[in-house]
Design brief:
Layout (H helix, E strand, L loop, with lengths): L19 H11 L3 E5 L5 E6 H8 L6 H10 L7 H7 L21 H10 L4 E5 L5 E6 H16 L3
Antiparallel strand pairs: 1-2, 3-4
Length: 157
């Protein structure tokens, strides 16, 4: 089984110029926990997750989704100076640019399992021969694939 058999091809990406506010809207609207950060040529330059934003903001036990609701519902209310300032900052200082693991469309399922088992990544970008992002695999995608296509096919009626 190869990555191209179960990767998500409709990839949501952001750029280094994306603001924290825009990122939060993307994560919440698409119900995802992270996205690849790409340059103008769609080549990967980093990854950013809801956890990266939380660690940067250090809110007292709030989740990204709680913060987004607070921002949208209480737009006219004055938020803390740091939160207000941070929302309009770009994600360039928050994103992860080191030790990004990627796979190719023809990588084996074992390669993906190895990365997920050794690292605490939520998503792995899939890159083509020109290092452009053409897909993504999440832990959930992998588990759905294993359950549906591998375990499900092994059942007998």
């Amino acid at each position: 089984m190869q990555v191209h058999d179960f990767m998500i091809r409709d990839v949501i990406t952001v750029t280094e110029e994306t603001t924290v506010r825009e990122l939060l809207e993307i994560l919440v609207n698409h119900k995802i926990g992270g996205v690849p950060v790409v340059n103008i040529d769609n080549k990967i330059v980093g990854m950013i997750s809801d956890g990266d934003v939380i660690r940067y903001l250090r809110p007292n036990s709030r989740t990204v989704f709680d913060m987004f609701a607070l921002i949208m519902v209480n737009e006219q209310e004055k938020l803390s100076d740091k939160l207000g300032y941070t929302l309009d900052k770009t994600i360039s200082n928050m994103m992860n640019t080191k030790d990004i693991k990627t796979v190719k469309p023809d990588s084996d399922l074992d390669d993906v399992l190895e990365i997920f088992s050794r690292h605490h990544f939520k998503k792995i970008p899939v890159l083509d021969g020109q290092q452009k992002v053409i897909g993504v695999i999440s832990r959930g995608d992998l588990l759905r694939h294993i359950t549906k296509d591998i375990i499900g096919k092994g059942k007998t009626s």
